[in-house]
Design goal:
Number of helices: 0
Largest sheet: 6 strands, mixed
Number of domains: 1
Strand content: 25-35%
Radius of gyration: 13 Å
Bound molecules: iron/sulfur cluster
Structural class: mainly beta
Amino acid sequence: MTTGLTCTVNTCINHCDGYCSLHSINIGGHQAMMKDETFCRSFAQRPEGAQNSTNFCAANPHMSIKCSVEGCAYYKNGRCKAENVIVSGGSADAMQDTLCDTFTMR
Ligand code: SF4
Ligand code: SF4
């Protein structure tokens, strides 16, 4: 299934005007009990001084999300079954600073 994905991590090289430009992302945090313990494994920091890619990126608002957060109510067989997911972490400079805002304890 595909999930609607919005993202606020504007320091990520894949960020595109409130969305992600990747075909698929991977959310980690195997033993997470709260959303702060989850993170976007697909995060890659935009090199310092690089332009925000908003003007020439291609947003991908729906995608298949791989996930290892087994304690989340939306987790099923290594995938996310939520209709919509928000990834946050405004000024993240490492993947651990990002999180899945949609995480809900099972
Ligand atoms: S943090 Fe994750 S969801 Fe957000 S733009 Fe980067 S790769 Fe995509
Ligand atoms: S909502 Fe839950 S299952 Fe979906 S990506 Fe976030 S942590 Fe993983």
